[in-house]
Design goal:
Elements: H1 9-14, H2 33-45, H3 57-60, H4 63-73, E1 78-87, E2 92-95, E3 112-121, E4 125-132, H5 145-158, E5 162-170, E6 177-179, E7 183-185, H6 187-207, H7 231-238, H8 249-279, E8 282-283, E9 288-296, E10 300-301, H9 303-312, H10 323-330, H11 334-343, E11 347-348, E12 352-360
Helix pairs in contact: 5-6, 7-8, 10-11
Length: 361
């Protein structure tokens, strides 16, 4: 069985079979915005923030993120990128000393491994904080199995009986950031986490021999690299039901329930095909291909630079610093105002991202 890592535990808790099904492998061709921000935050907490790259500059200057990081520093001396490995069935865990990023080779293959972004040790407890970026909100700390495993592993490795877990949330599409409220875990909580993880280890072992018995579809399917190979999705798509009479109440009700089911199945089928297209484009036979392509979002206006310029020009800065709002405020001077803002570096290029869509082959 492949190495079980903390970042996949949320999915494995819902669908143990996804740990043993075939899957496409990730190949990261470059540093993502999330990776760059992690590196910058690590440097800041260690007293030596690197010069931020253009992709993360607005966050590096964000008063919200800086305030959240200072709040973390007030808790104690942070350690960053701390790797843990644990065997919940045996109640054992340790902090790994390997230097390579996400290098878990020091741990036995059947142990669960994970990396905590931020760890703060206290005399009788430990605080574990995970940095999360992007548009999609992660599970809250009290239901976040990545964090719960890391808290359990850290408590066992450091010999303490209490832990606190939290999420440093950095939202995409702006400069908003916050340290979400910490969740306190007592000794009993940590014991219950160990029991649940030990049960998962047993389920994963059984799933190797009978994966169909441990399949489950749902929200966890969204980012599953095994989705194109999933027997449950294949079965759903293959069985869409028989004809019903829409003129009767019972028939209409059954049709509506079936429609909801079909829409859910279609959504998962699309997710499965999109995951496949990321790794292996799908030729449609008519000159078009379903593939992942590079895209660029809309330009944004840097308020810290733009607002003083607008005021200097006698323009009341709009509440929303969009081009449309500035055009309404600047009226006939819009082109000159935008040229001034561009020259001052207030107009930031759209964020680059990837999207699966149909393109000409």
């Amino acid at each position: 069985m492949k190495r079980i890592t903390a970042s996949s535990l949320q999915r494995y808790m819902e669908c143990p079979a996804s740990a043993v099904l075939p899957a496409y492998s990730h190949h990261n061709d470059g540093a993502s915005v999330g990776t760059l921000l992690h590196e910058w935050v690590e440097g800041y907490l260690n007293g030596a923030p690197p010069v931020p790259s253009p992709e993360i500059e607005q966050w590096a200057r964000s008063p919200y993120l800086l305030a959240a990081l200072d709040e973390i520093l007030e808790m104690g001396a942070p350690n960053t990128e701390v790797k843990f490995a644990g065997n919940p069935m045996a109640g054992e865990a340790q902090a790994l000393q390997t230097l390579g990023q996400r290098d878990y080779s020091e741990a036995p293959q059947d142990w669960i491994c994970g990396t905590a972004d931020i760890v703060i040790r206290h005399p009788d407890s430990v605080t574990v904080i995970d940095l999360k970026t992007g548009y999609t909100d992660p599970p809250p700390a009290n239901r976040n199995w990545q964090l719960k495993f890391l808290a359990w592993a850290a408590s066992r490795a450091y010999g303490v009986t209490e832990a606190s877990i939290g999420i440093l949330r950095v939202w995409s599409g702006g400069d908003s950031a916050a340290l979400l409220p910490l969740v306190k875990l007592h000794e009993l909580d940590l014991d219950l986490i160990q029991d649940a993880l030990a049960n998962l280890q047993a389920d994963l072992s059984e799933a190797e021999h009978a994966p169909d018995a441990y399949l489950s579809t749902g929200p966890q399917c969204r980012f599953c690299d095994s989705l194109p190979f999933c027997p449950a999705v294949k079965a759903e798509v293959s069985a869409l039901g028989e004809e019903v009479d829409l003129s009767t109440d019972d028939g209409a009700a059954e049709a509506w329930r079936r429609l909801e089911t079909v829409e859910a199945i279609a959504k998962r089928a699309r997710q499965a095909l999109e995951r496949r297209a990321v790794f292996k484009p799908i030729p449609l036979g008519d000159g078009r291909v379903v593939a992942e392509v590079d895209k660029e979002g809309r330009e944004s206006i840097d308020g810290a630079v733009a607002i003083p310029i607008l005021r200097e020009l006698g323009i009341q800065p709009p509440v929303s610093l969009s081009k449309t709002a500035i055009k309404k405020a600047a009226k006939k001077n819009y082109d000159a105002v935008m040229a001034r803002l561009a020259k001052a570096g207030a107009i930031k290029p759209g964020r680059k991202y990837k999207k699966v869509e149909v393109v000409d082959g």
